[in-house]
User: What shape does this take?
Amino acid sequence: MRIITARRISQIFFTLLFFWFCMVSSLGRQWWQLRGWPVNFFLELSPLAGLGMALTTGTIYKGMAWGLVTLGVTFFLGRVFCGWVCPFGAIHHLLGYISRIKQAAPEKVRRNRYHPAQKVKYWILMVLLGTIVYDLARRLLGLPPGRMLSSLQIGLLDPMSLLYRSINLIVLPLVDGGGRWFSTAPRWYDAGFSIGLIFISALLLNFKVPRFFCRYVCPLGALLGILSRWPLFRIYKSDAACKTCPSCERHCEGACQPSDQLRLSECVVCLNCREDCREGSIRYGLKAPATGDIPAPDIHRREVILSMVSGVAGMAALGIEGRQGFNWPAHLVRPPGALNEPNFLARCIRCGQCMRICPTNVIQPAVLEAGWEAIWTPVLNFRVGTSGCQHTCIACGHVCPTAAIRPLTRDERMGNGFKEQGPIRIGTAFVDRGRCLPWAMDKPCIVCQENCPVSPKAIFTREVFNPVRMGRPLTVVSAEKDQMKLSGTVLTPGRYATGDFYCRISGQAPRQIVRQNEQTISVLAIYPFEPPPRAGDHVQILIRLQQPIVIPDRCIGCGICEHECPISGKRAIRVTAENESRNARHGFLLS
Amino acid sequence: MSPAVSNPDRRAFLARLAKAGLLATATGIAGFKLYDGTGPSPSSADQTALTLPEYAIDDPSKPQRRNRLAVVHGNDRKQTVNQGLKALGGIEAFVKKGERVLIKVNAAFASPPALSATTHPDLVTELVRLCLKAGAAEVRVADNPINDPATCFELTGIGPAARSAGARVMLPRTASFQPVSVSGGRLIKNWPVFVKPLTGVDKVIGVAPVKDHHRSGASLSMKNWYGLLGGRRNIFHQEIHNIIYELALMIRPSLVILDGTTTMMTNGPTGGSLADLKQTDTMILGTDPVAVDTYGAGLLEKPIETLPHIAKAEAAGLGTTDLDAIEPIISNLG
Assistant: This one.
């Protein structure tokens, strides 16, 4: 078997495996649905995410240790991950291949020539690392947090996070349409446009330059490029007298100039050059190259420093916005088990796995709700999806590859046996009395109270009887104990016989209206007027309302009330992050 | 003169003239066809709304006395429902060979069977088994829950129970809804209803638990049809008793079963705690939903006068609250 056939098989295998993991990340009883499949495997293979988290948290969480394997392979064999494993790389590879099918050899060679702008990916890597280094240095020196914001921005461009996010939140929902295979209801994702724009651009740019993303953008490629400086095995030219014909560059994936001095940091070990060399002088092995090579990326110390400083400066500017302090965004409701905001942002790689697995589709990628530093991080939008956050569900924390959302047990989530802490609260519901039907408009409702899933309910209702506006006052003409004939406004028959209307004559409690005609009213026979109304008495028609009131120490912020509220635009009951368990400073209750 | 500036020859000129003429004609025709001199009307015309067919086997407005209501006391749902059915003439009185049956459960909430907020899976299993035994060609189990549908059917145990007994579970999907109107109704007009499971069905059986309900007072067999509504159905809570009454008008079931083995006395309709429940050991079956709900209200210790939807349904001839008049068949197990 030719070596590049082996490479193709490897690429196809890992790409299919990746798509398989995306598809099986759905809840259900089918054998293929989320039965311990290692669905985060490719995220964990990215040492970039692992390195970022190691720098921000000082730890390597569970499966993220797979990144060490990738690093190990890179030390020995170069960027094999990029050329043989990475599913995003494989997709670019395929599209690049398609784009040049009909091209003449010189044109192919031209498009695979090394370009100085390939150093941009190292700048990107340094900016991303720069967002971390200040905080790292601060912690190493034992200084107080200060005003800088610290967060892990790696996930914005880490190819694995980008790919998971794009496939899970854009591609699968579109392919799946109305929820045929991977979900029971159509899935909706806020920020879909920004995620899709980047993904589609990355794909289409292959028609301009093959592996555009890998060559110019990919920070993981940059990291592995820096680290493949001393590989045990490598591409080398065995013949110093090579005529430097450019045949070997016709299909060069990394644009690493194998015909000249090889740029080791750019080589993705696709081995196409070895295949294409007619003289057989390009080999992969232990030997030193006959013509020398360029082991390090084309990036100078000054560029490294400038990039990192811009990362630091960005974090400083974000810190000024004060979002992790007094200016915290109240509508930023994170999934249950999310760490407090600084620790959350130190881990979240925006892979979208929590959004994919959420059975109700309530977890959404943030646009700017959480600030510039938290684009595409998970935020709950109770208007989207099939229901609020199910108060017995713990799926998001268990799929999260970085524990930005901590894996909870169901007992911890619901507070069973956690008397001290109580259930996990993600926020508190607030009734908007200016929009709520019983509060603002004298219309019965209490859908929110009814749907409150905690027991005892976190919403109680206060019964009030409000007078109904009448053109002319109603006066009794004649009456029995449970029936009266009236004069005054002519009533619409049945209008006040819905069960929610009462009538009152002075000195007596309201009586429920059971039948009503243009000028007659009957009240509940088992609770008649005592004594009966007299002719000339004034009658007031009242509407009985139950006005919802939230009990903040019972509310867990699940948002089912907000989801169900019949005021469908801006809901009349809304959850904000007040009193969330993850940040004691967001509380407002006295114990 | 160079050829570059020469006039076209006649043939080329005519060809170009013909192309330009064709394009101009096509543009003109397209413009004429598409021209709209009035602009859009304020709202699009209503889709033609369906009315649901009759599934009832008795006419409750007729003064038929017997076999309208059976009550069995006992705590084993399988036994009580069997005994109740026997009292009403057996399942064969309701399901004929080759018929398609819909069992409309209450799967509204993602809560376990022990909390009694939803139809008990044991009851579903037994009913599906009985229908199939009676020769039903297909048994469907459906609801449009409040919480996430798939989660609800799994956590309540209804989904697995129905499937293993051989029924087809139908979850609501966008295409499952069609506008329905109720004749004589004011609220259900062109309203999206979960019609898919009803399509092609011969018999409909409603199966609901007895529950307290903060807004309507009680959630019984007639309230159970709320789970057929789609759209932003919560707006109907403004007139809860009227909507329940209209739901009873909308669908006339073949049989309703009200499970009062445990009754949710407080915190309804969600419950959420065993403290909300009371063991009442009663299974109520009947062809008269008004009578069934009247009996159910008793388990909740609520006078039916406080549940205006029952009176409204009775006034519309959907059944009777006068239980003595229809001679309920009451029996005890064991």
User: Anything to note?
Assistant: The interface with chain A takes residues 109-111, 146-151, 154-155, 160, 171, 173-175, 213-215, 232, 234-235, 237-242, 267-273, 275-276, 303, 305-306, 308-309, 311 of chain B (CB under 8 Å). The two ends of chain B are 117 Å apart (CA to CA). Chain B is about 30% helix and 20% strand.
